[in-house]
Amino acid sequence: MTDAREARLLELVQTRAGVSRRRAEELVREGEVEAGEQVVTDPFLLVDPVVVGTLRVRGQPLSLLPPTTRVYRYHKPAGVLCSHDDPHAGETVGRVLRAGGFIGYTFAGRLDRESEGLVLLSNDGDLVLHLSHPRYEVEKVYRVTLGRVPPSPDLRRILDQMRQGIEDEGETLRIARGEVEERPPRAVVTLTEGKKREVRRLFARFGLEATRLVRLAIGPIPLGDLPPGGIERLSPDEEARLRKAVGIAHPRS
To answer: In angstroms, rounded to a whole number, what is the distance separating the alpha carbons of residues 175 and 160?
Structure first.
């Protein structure tokens, strides 16, 4: 039986160094990782942090103590890409995390570059998985500004059709709920899956361009009045409600 303390080396590098899983694997294979004073090139080697004692990446020592899990809300501005490592992408969430000292954190609630709004940041991998994977059906709410706004009755009929499902590029796109804001006229839609550029594609099927897309909430967590680029930690009550919503009562030790 595997010791409960053991973890794959690439996972330790990923969480302790704050890099993507792919980059962690590359660093191990390139011989840039020392575990217990020995260079290890097998990223999938099971390692007991207590036995190993030390972990270094490119000579830099990393803590093997388990992190205290936390969750933050981040207001992603337009122009920032939801990516950890992309040298050609300009500003990325990964760079925002590193600049803010968020070592070992990743993001849940991917948005395309042009879209804005709520992204959750956490160093709890299980929580991020439950927030991100379609099978957990976490609701995400978006406010959509359209370049051309149909009369409200027509827009409501369009939202009704979106609830029933729209075929596009071999996929069925569907919203869970939709409503119309009158002043100014905008649509607010709720999704539980979030396929690539799903909201924009849905409106495009009706000849409508989403000129601005803002995510207002993920599960029970609202964006609130957090300004673009702002990051703030969730309150204990908010984190508890978020964990309850996705079925994780406590962080996994």
So the answer is: 9
